[in-house]
Amino acid sequence: MENIKAIIEALVFASESPLSVDRIAEILGEVDKKEIVAVLSALREEHETRGGGFLLREVAQGFQFSTRTSLSLWIRRLKKSKPLTLTPAAMETLAIIAYRQPVVKAEIDRIRGVDTGGPLKGLLEKKLVRIQGRKDVPGRPIIYGTTKRFLEVFTLKDLSELPSLKEFKELQE
User: Fold this and answer.
1) Does the structure show a pLDDT above 70 at 87?
2) How far is CA 55 from the centre of its chain?
3) What's the angle, vertex CA 63, arms to CA 41 and CA 130, rounded to 5?
4) Average pLDDT over every residue of 133-152
5) Domain coverage including residue 18
6) Does the structure show a pLDDT above 90 at 165?
7) What's the pLDDT score for residue 71?
8) Which of 85, 93, 110, 134 has minimal CB crowding within 10 Å?
9) pLDDT tier at 108 (50, 70, 90 boundaries)?
10) Which DSSP letter does residue 71 get?
């Protein structure tokens, strides 16, 4: 396929959400996944080396262009919007869900020591948390987990990139 690099770059650029290697392979048809991974790696390195306004990141099990964090002030001015803000209660609730998922509200409440209905509602509205179903116990409580948007906002490939408790302790010291 001629100019595969330009095609893949255009696909990632045009996609509204992170584009997976599998999806790119599905669109391109006859191109090997190893070749797609190699092209994505080359594109990633090019954009990083160039030092321009955006770069290619692997987030939420796919690839997406994003602006450099150091330029966020200018982007906010352009969009005249505030960055995504979370209250301390919402951040605590989100952390519990991220590390304990799938988790029910009663467990989140127990860990935080207070009712988490408000923060949980806000996280659902911001699409950082989703309902994964119901637990098969009496009362059938709702099970919560993080979303693909959570991975995008925190620029994580997947949940395994969350810092470990050991890393948190090292930061405190």
Assistant:
1) yes
2) 16
3) 150
4) 89
5) 4-77
6) no
7) 85
8) 85
9) very high
10) G
**19, 47, 77 — which closes off a domain?**
77
What would the two tokens of residue 170 be?
Answer: 């090292």
Amino acid at 156: L
Which amino acid does the sequence have at 44? R
Q: Give the span between the Cα atoms of 87 and 7, in whole angstroms.
A: 41
The residue from 77, 106, 121 where one domain ends is 77
Number of domain units in the chain: 2
Rounded CA separation 21/151 (Å): 17
Instruction: Name residue, tokens 């994003």.
Output: 66
- Does 94 lie in the same domain as 68? no
The CATH number assigned to the domain holding 41 equals 1.10.10.10
Amino acid identity of residue 87, one-letter, is T
Cα separation of 38 and 103, whole Å?
37
